[in-house]
Amino acid sequence: MLRSLVRLRSHFGNAHALSKVCPRSQHARYSTALADRRKFYQDVSISQGDGGIYEINLDRRKLKTPGGKLFTVPNEALAIAVATEWDAQRDTLKFYTMHLTTLCNTALDNPTQRNEDQMIGAALKFLETDTVCYRVDEPHALVELQKNEWDPVLHWIENRYNVTIGSSSNILGPEIPNATKDTFRQHLNSYNFWSLTGLEYVITQLKSVVLSMAMIDRHLNVEQAVLLSRLEEEYQIQSWGNVEWAHDYDMYELRARTAAGALFVHLSSESSTIKRKLLQD
Amino acid sequence: MATLSSSPLRACRGILKELRAIQGPSYNKSLAYNYVMDQFRKNKASSRGCVTAVTGERYCRAQQEAHHASHTYLCLLASTRNHQALHNYYHGKGDRSLAQAASMVGLRLPTQPGGKGWEK
Fold first, then answer.
1. Residues near A180 by Cβ (< 8 Å), separated by ≥ 6?
2. A18 phi and psi angles, rounded to 5 deg
3. Is the peptide bond preceding residue A139 cis, with omega within 30 degrees of 0?
4. A280 touches chain B (CB under 8 A)
5. Sign of the C-alpha dihedral computed for residues B91, B97, B101 and B107 taken in this order
6. For residues A101 and A98, what is the distance between their CA atoms, to the nearest angstrom?
7. Interatomic CA distance for residues B68 and A224, integer angstroms
8. What phi and psi values does residue A130 have, to the nearest 5 degrees?
9. What is each CA distance from A114 to A39, A65, A199, B67, in whole angstroms?
10. What is the pLDDT of residue A15?
11. DSSP string of A7-27, one letter each residue
12. Among A126, A123, A130, which Cα is nearest to A186's?
């Protein structure tokens, strides 16, 4: 079903627009001063600091967060990915493409001063307005599509966590029982602060706790999660045609951000010890 | 569980292609290249243990995790590249020149053959 959606989309031509659309500045959460920096370095490298943390070096200088702190990451993989982002810049620094750097900056600086309980509470609150639980009544094709695509994910997460989350088509949304919230709260408590930052980011991007959890638990990959999140848009695109400078643009941006968030969560929550087992005996 | 719709080899090749697009011909000396190749080699080696050993289950899960992570990273690199390309193509042109603005409504700038007289 998902595949037929994508195939049908490719049949429609792209509508090119003549009007100019203002370039968006995605990144400027707290760094308007760096709006149009030129690339001021040649080489990017990583170095290990005390306590097993990794730092990024741009030429000879150490990278700092917008808040002025030293930029440190807890594992090598994330450091290399961030270094690759900085290395990918040409001429000017385009911060809106450096999603992992942005996430690390948020986790390090914590500009809104959130603690873990607040983040967990926010995520659970989002569950009440989860995209996957909000259904339409008409048009009929969209109702069917939502049922066929979203119900399996909903059932999967209900089985996986042993909870009940309904779906509803009225304006108030589903009633989430407290037991469900407690189960999720318990599960989310096992995530560290960095992982929760990433998770909150993914939830905000996908507009769905269910899809985020399904992707973090590796039940869905990024493309599938983004497709399910944009299900109604894809349905409209199927009816009315695709507009490359809006639909594809948004889709790629959503994919990039979601992938960055997912990678951030995975890398922040795995431990970096390598245990070797003697298998070939 | 998400089906392994494309093999790890495809993810590996995809990531390397993206790295080459980012870094140019010297991409095989970069940090990311070395790390990615290390990870793929490590996970490939452990897959042989899956088939025979009783405790291969844990390696299988690590392999699935690495597989998912590699696809996620590939998605990240490809989508940022596509997003940037679309941005540059549609939204990155900046102000139009006078000639371009005129041609949008089908007009051309006036020319005077022979110059206006006050040019060099």
1. A127, A161, A163, A164, A165
2. -95, -25
3. yes
4. yes
5. negative
6. 5
7. 12
8. -65, 135
9. 32, 17, 14, 32
10. 38
11. HHHTTSPBPPP-S--PPP--S
12. A123
For A131-160, the pLDDT digits (tens) are: 888 888 888 999 999 999 999 999 999 999
Instruction: Write out chain B's pLDDT in tens, 120 residues.
Output: 444 445 888 999 999 999 999 888 888 888 899 999 999 888 876 655 444 444 455 567 888 888 999 999 999 999 999 999 999 888 877 777 888 888 888 998 888 888 777 776
Distance, first Cα to last Cα, chain B = 74
Nearest CA of chain B to the CA of A172: how many Å?
A: 32
In DSSP terms, A48 is beta-bridged to A54
The pLDDT tens digits for A79-134 are 999 999 999 998 889 999 999 999 999 999 998 888 999 999 999 999 988 988 88
Q: Is residue A83 a contact partner of residue B31, using CB atoms and an 8 Å limit?
A: yes
Cβ proximity of B15 and B80 under 8 Å? no
| pLDDT score at A51 | 85
Q: What is the pTM of this model?
A: 0.80
CATH H-level superfamily of A44-109: ATP12-like (3.30.2180.10)
The matching CATH number, chosen from 1.10.3580.10, 2.60.40.10, 3.90.226.10, 3.40.190.10, for A116-269 is: 1.10.3580.10
For strand A54-58 and strand A61-62, is the pairing parallel, antiparallel, or unpaired? Answer: antiparallel
**Which of A97, A103, A159, A221 to probe the B interface (max B CBs under 10 A)?**
A221
Please enumerate residues of B whose Cβ is less than 8 A from a Cβ of A. 1-2, 19, 22-23, 30-32, 35, 49, 52-53, 55-56, 64-65, 68-69, 71-73, 75-76, 79-80, 82-84, 86-87, 89-93, 96, 104
From B112's Cα to the closest Cα of chain A, the distance in A is 29
With beta carbons under 8 A apart, name residues in chain B contacting A46: 31
A220–chain B Cβ distance below 8 A for any pair: yes
Q: How far is CA A179 from the centre of its chain?
A: 26
